[in-house]
Amino acid sequence: MKTIYGIQYLRAAAALAVVFFHAAEKTGHHFTIGAAGVDVFFVISGFIMWVISDRRPVTPLEFIRDRARRIVPVYWLATAVMVAGALAGLFPNLVLSLEHVLASLFFVPARSPSSGEIWPVLVQGWTLNFEMLFYLVFAGSLVLPRNWRLPAMSGLFLALVIVGRVATFDGALMLTYTRPIILEFVAGMIIAEFWLKGRVPPLAVGSALMACSLGGFALIGLLALPFDELITGPLAVLLVLGVLSLEANGCVRRVPLPALLGDASYSIYLWHTFAISVVAKVALEIDLGAPATMFMAVLSGTLIGVAAYMMLERPLMRRGNARRVAGGLAGRAAE
Questions:
Q1: Which residue from 8, 50, 209, 220 has the fewest beta carbons nearer than 10 Å?
Q2: What is the DSSP letter of 207?
């Protein structure tokens, strides 16, 4: 599949926004709006899954297997590092329980014994609970005729959100899966359907959409305004639409560094907090100063993610792709 570099660059930007968010938390700065990188990720996820499934039809089992190979090994490794660190006393505020660790590993929303929040052992893994819900629903939709898939998934997710608005829940599962944030996957799929049909906003409109989105994010960040997915979700949708307009009009070219950061965005997202925590502790010991600490935290968080991508994620992806190709050749040879 031809790489859509605008989407790659957005993945990089979303990952870096989250890095800045966590680095700011650790160094006394303010960049809460960086958390909205997650909203951009979810819209992109819906877009990518819809485009991939259209260009390379797969069975539900093949889809889940591919997603598991892509997501699970690196996440389990990062979670194992957290567990090992807690057992070694490196994370004194992290309280472990077998139930919570197992829930974390298998993407089941559960309350953390450390804080009571609905977080896995590796806190940023909370987004993967939503991703896995989306993947399961998407896989189930593959048994339907293509024209029914998007309406079916949209209807289910909309129904969940409505239930969350009219009912009160205490359980972590329903509190998680009735949040409006799940509609961002639907928005991504709708954008993808328009993209596949060649119905993309013209350049002037796309540029205006990007300006509105970035202006909205900047306004929230600069004025420290309250926000949630009902605000950042639509802004993320406008941003993705605007970037795709630039892409369709030939305004996006491959630039090596942003392309690499886009490829490494998942690993950056998973691993950056480890480096940020180390930098924050060392900076406190040597009295480095807040601005320098912030810079080093962002840099180290990004670099550890790129290193993890190069040394862990990419080799695992290549091995999985090789097995898939070998399995396909073996199947055709047996026919």
A1: 220
A2: H
Mean model confidence pLDDT for the chain: 92
Do residues 203 and 246 lie in contact, with contact meaning Cβ atoms separated by under 8 Å?
yes
**Is the Cα dihedral 51, 52, 56, 57 positive or negative?**
negative
- pLDDT, average across residues 122-132: 96
Q: What is the CA radius of gyration of the chain?
A: 20
Instruction: Count the Cβ atoms, other than its own, within 10 Å of residue 244.
Output: 24
The helix-helix angle for 256-263 and 5-27 (nearest 10°) equals 70
331 pLDDT band, cuts 50/70/90, is very low
DSSP element (H, E) containing 262 = helix 256-263
* Structure-model confidence comparison of residues 288 and 206, the more confident one: 206
pLDDT at 69 over 90: yes
Query: Which strand (E) or helix (H) includes residue 15?
Result: helix 5-27
| Residue pointed to by tokens 């997915």 | 229
**Which pLDDT belongs to residue 202?**
96
Report the pLDDT value the prediction gives residue 332, as an integer from 0 to 100. 43
Q: What are phi and psi of 333, to 5 degrees?
A: -65, -30
User: Which is nearest to 261 in space by CA: 301, 206, 294, 228?
Assistant: 301
| DSSP for residue 93 | T
What φ, ψ does residue 266 adopt, rounded to 5°? -65, -45
Which burial class, exposed, middle or buried, applies to 328 when counting CB atoms under 10 A from its CB (0-12, 13-18, 19+)? exposed
Residue 183: enclosing H or E segment and its boundaries?
Answer: helix 183-196
Taking a C-beta distance cutoff of 8 angstroms, is the pair 201, 241 a contact? yes
